[in-house]
Amino acid sequence: MNEMVPGDPGRHAWREALIRRAIVEARDGGGPIATAVCHPCDATALVAAAEAAEQGLISPILVGPEAKLRRAASDAGIDLSPFRIVATQHSHESADRAVALIRSGEAQLLMKGSLHTDEMMHAVMEPVTGLRTERRVSHVYLHSAPAYPRPLLVTDAAINIAPTLMEKRDIIQNAIDLAHVLGIDAPRVAILSAVETVSPKLQSTLDAAALCKMSDRGQITGGVLDGPLAFDNAINPEAAAEKGLVSPVAGRADILVAPDLVAGNILAKLLIYMAGADAAGVVIGARAPIILTSRADSRDTRIASCAVAVLMCRDIQATASRAVV
Fold first, then answer.
1. What average pLDDT does the chain have?
2. What are the φ and ψ backbone dihedral angles of 97, each rounded to 5 degrees?
3. Which end of the chain lies in a sparser environment, N or C, as judged by fewer CB atoms within 10 Å?
4. How far apart are CA 122 and CA 317, in angstroms?
């Protein structure tokens, strides 16, 4: 991804380029990606799916109670005739059926509708019928903030409440893999804490030090890690220099790894609501990328989130094709 000039009114260019690239890859790969939209039973959720379909990114399969779907479509002024409907009785069944569509190969992406995230993720994480892999599932936000010269990935702000050391290893690897898909070949990963020194009183600093050594030993690959780093030292070169930090990551991170979900969620939402950052988000580590959208998300955020998932899906398909050859 191209770097951006801080404060440049053209800072949205990264998002527009991301969406254009996803549309091209969807088209060249055979068309929009079949997407199981789980229980989109309000106008907001249906509009998100319909707008992504209009952009040529996804081909929605609407999974939910048909009467509720049609009422929501009427409220939103959406014509459901282009879309396949898989009728269910309730949200729990919607989650199970949407996951089953992924397992059967009828859909390649999963998109959250109007049910609670926990309910959908419960179906995703079922040991036998779900979408689990050997990798821990995690969420990554992709931000573009006016005061930062490049896109910034923040993880995990939505799935893992208090991740263990090994779970943090997977969270980092997931974010690095996504960065590669987005064109960041060797992402700089800052493992955050309140301080930049290791202290036995702060578990997050011990985890950061261990994760950096795991990277040295090849247990985390594809990125450059440093930590612990305080937030200012991770993203501000002057702050890093003031502390005397000599690091390829400090002051210019591509990925910020939060110590827990609370810290990650606060950081991600501060970037959006107080720093004016653009955003997109996706869940990684399952058998298919998962698009999480919320009522508060803007149209552009929903479209960008779908675009990220489409790019991931095409990368997975390309990797599988190379493996067969």
1. 91
2. -70, -40
3. C
4. 26
Whole-angstrom distance, CA of residue 125 vs CA of residue 95 = 11
Higher pLDDT among residues 35 and 12, named by residue: 35
First to last CA, the chain: 29
DSSP for 199-230?
-TT-HHHHHHHHHHHHHHTTSS-SSEEEEEE-
User: Hey, CA dihedral for 216, 220, 226, 229, is it positive or negative?
Assistant: negative
Side by side, which strands form the sheet with 188-192? 84-87, 58-64, 33-38, 109-112, 290-291, 278-284, 138-144, 152-155, 255-257, 188-192, 224-229
Distance, in Å, from the CA atom of 43 to the CA atom of 200, rounded to the nearest integer, reads 50
Q: What is the distance between the alpha carbons of residues 306 and 49, in angstroms, rounded to a whole number?
A: 9
What pLDDT is recorded for position 4? 36
pTM to 2 decimals? 0.92
Alpha helices, DSSP H, located in the chain: 13-28, 43-54, 66-76, 91-104, 117-124, 165-181, 203-216, 231-235, 237-242, 261-273, 299-324
- Is there a cis peptide before residue 163, judged by omega within 30 degrees of 0? no
SS3 64: strand
Cα distances (angstroms) measured from residue 211 to each of 18, 182, 218, 263: 30, 23, 11, 18
Distance (Å, rounded) from C-alpha 20 to C-alpha 135?
30
Over residues 65-84, mean pLDDT = 95
pLDDT tens per residue across span 204-261:
999 999 999 999 999 999 999 999 999 999 999 999 999 999 999 999 999 999 999 9
Phi, psi for residue 107 in degrees, rounded to 5: -135, 150
Closest CA to 196 of 168, 233, 225, 165: 233
CA angle 55, 132, 267 (to 5 degrees): 65
Q: How far is CA 132 from the centre of its chain?
A: 16
